[in-house]
Specification:
Oligomer: single chain
Strand content: 15-25%
Low-confidence stretches: none
Membrane topology: Multi-pass membrane protein
Number of strands: 12
CATH superfamily of the largest domain: Histidine kinase-like ATPase, C-terminal domain
CATH topology of the largest domain: Heat Shock Protein 90
Subcellular location: Cell membrane
Radius of gyration: 56 Å
Order of helices and strands: HHHHEEHEEEHHHEHHEEHEEHHEE
Catalytic activity: ATP + protein L-histidine = ADP + protein N-phospho-L-histidine
Bound molecules: adenosine-5'-triphosphate, magnesium ion
Enzyme class: transferase
Helix content: 40-55%
CATH architecture of the largest domain: 2-Layer Sandwich
Keywords: ATP-binding, Cell membrane, Kinase, Membrane, Nucleotide-binding, Phosphoprotein, Transferase, Transmembrane, Transmembrane helix, Two-component regulatory system
């Protein structure tokens, strides 16, 4: 059985039980008040019918009834009637006497014409002598007695002792059926609104959860769930949404890894295939006796050696990169004098710079200061070597100049290495730190490289908790910069 159906059932039962209890209470009340278990059928009249008059009024009524039985002619005497009326007035009751179809006496405050129209018919057995009536906009309870002035002539008469009842009681009497209908309607409406409210707050979100779960089962993790509710159902929806997002992210990550793996495989195959083909070609040349002079043979062997060395370099770089990528390459951090370290690398490369006609320019005063960073010295050197190697490789036109600058920026040291080479096209700039990425001119100009140098530099700098970036204007050179956390002596 669905929750929605159960809710509908429970609200309907509440309404039905309430109505039954309400009707039973009304019935029991009427029985309790009237003492008659059939009283519900004449509920309106019975209370006043049983007790229409007070004790004094009742006594006066009995007096008149006695006269009516024994000497009815006396009831035609106006003075006597006025006397009775006066006594009744003192207890706030009123009198009316009927002779055949006409009212021969009525208390002056009564409207005798209206009253005559609503008085009950003669009923000489006097079985129902107490009841209520409406005259104009007044509501009365009364006691009456029907008698003969002269039985032989069928000359009939009635005495009425009337008492006006509260107008509010009359309003309630008139409106009671409507009020009961209104009560029942309010009850039904409340039940319905409650049902709608609970449905909206519980069933709809659960429905959306089910739909979302089905979509996830079908492999669609993109549909977002949202809720503003802070209740238990809202929390459930939020937890579900959290789960969906994490699942979505992890699947995306997996796809990304899978993509990476495929690309890596294709890059490695491609990068290994070129030197292997070359080596194979040279080896076949030697086998087929193409190298008929010792110089030619030496050239072929040299070429084979160079390609093999390239492959070795590529495999070494790849191994190193994948170790960094999988966090399997340990870092041994120590306090390193950054200026000293950069100077040392520059000195080691002096010969290379001279051979390529490259001038090194130091661009700031900090270059003299000792600036300590926490770094793995060997890996930091590798970063610098990779960056200088690129400058040497890609700067082709004189004058060749490399500018070095080391700054402090908050708790970081910033190293900036700029060259005045060809620079990089803005479209390629965001990709140069990706592994195997090589900009088109470097590929086509047969400048040797595997596209791993900057990817390795990035992994190393990020392993230090720093960041690496590049700025370039095509034709104006490339500026590479990285940050390293300054060493704080806490002793
Ligand atoms: N100083 C530079 N000037 C111009 N282009 C550069 C410079 N440094 C890097 N690049 C471009 O960025 C690409 C990626 O450089 P990276 O060092 O990662 O690879 P590589 O130099 O081609 O190969 P590897 O360093 O693995 O031998 C290069 O192929 C080149 O296109
Ligand atoms: Mg490089």
């Amino acid at each position: 059985m669905s929750i929605r159906f159960r809710l509908l059932l429970s609200f309907t039962s509440v309404v039905v039980v309430s109505v039954i209890l309400f009707v039973s209470a009304a019935y029991l009340l009427s029985v309790a008040v009237t003492g008659d278990f059939r009283s519900i059928s004449s509920f309106y009249n019975i209370h006043y019918s049983l007790h229409p008059l007070s004790e004094e009024e009742e006594n006066l009524f009995l007096d008149m009834k006695y006269l009516a039985k024994h000497d009815p002619k006396l009831l035609l005497d106006k003075e006597r009637l006025e006397e009775y009326d006066l006594q009744l007035k003192m207890v706030q009751a009123q009198l009316a006497v009927r002779h055949n179809d006409a009212i021969i006496y009525s208390t002056p405050t009564l409207n005798s014409r209206e009253l005559n129209q609503v008085l009950p018919d003669y009923e000489m057995g006097n079985y129902a002598i107490r009841s209520t009536l409406n005259s104009g906009n007044q509501f009365f309870s009364y006691a009456k007695f029907d008698f003969y002035f002269d039985e032989a002539k069928q000359d009939m008469g009635s005495i009425f002792v009337l008492r006006e009842r509260s107008p509010f009681a009359e309003i309630v009497r008139t409106l009671l059926p409507i009020l009961i209908i209104v009560f029942v309607c309010v009850l039904l409406l409340t039940g319905f609104l409650l049902y709608r409210y609970v449905t909206r707050k519980i069933i709809f979100p659960l429905d959306r959860l089910r739909q979302s779960a089905e979509q996830i089962k079908g492999g669609d993790l993109s549909q977002e769930l949202s809720t503003n509710a802070g209740d238990e159902v809202g929390q459930l929806v939020m937890a579900f949404e959290d789960m969906r997002r994490k699942l979505h992210d992890s699947i995306q990550l997996q796809l990304h890894y899978e993509d990476n793996r495929k690309q890596l495989l294709s890059n490695i195959s491609h990068d290994l295939r070129t030197p292997i083909t070359t080596i194979k070609g040279y080896a076949e040349g030697i086998r087929d006796g193409v190298t008929n002079t010792p110089e030619k043979l030496e050239r072929y062997v040299d070429a084979i050696h160079t390609r093999a060395a390239d492959m070795e370099h590529l495999v070494d770089e790849l191994l190193f990169y994948s170790k960094l990528d999988m966090n399997k390459e340990p870092f041994s951090f120590e306090q390193v004098d950054l200026n000293g370290c950069v100077r040392q690398v520059v000195n080691e490369l002096t010969l290379e710079f001279d051979n390529h006609g490259v001038e090194i320019v130091w661009n700031n005063t900090l270059s003299e200061e000792q600036l300590y960073v926490l770094a793995d010295r060997e890996k930091l050197k590798r970063v610098l070597l990779n960056l200088f190697d690129n400058c040497l490789k890609y700067m082709v036109q004189s004058p060749k100049q490399i500018t070095l600058r080391i700054d402090k920026q908050n708790e970081f040291a910033v190293v900036r290495i700029s060259d005045n080479g060809p620079g990089i096209h803005p479209d390629s700039l965001p990709h140069i730190f990706e592994r195997f990425y090589r900009e088109e001119p470097s590929r086509s100009q047969a400048i040797r490289g595997s596209g791993l140098g900057l990817a390795i530099a990035k992994q190393i700098i990020e392993g230090h908790g720093g960041q690496i970036g590049a700025d370039s204007e095509p034709g104006q050179g490339l500026a590479l910069h990285f940050t390293l956390k300054l060493f704080e002596d806490r002793r």
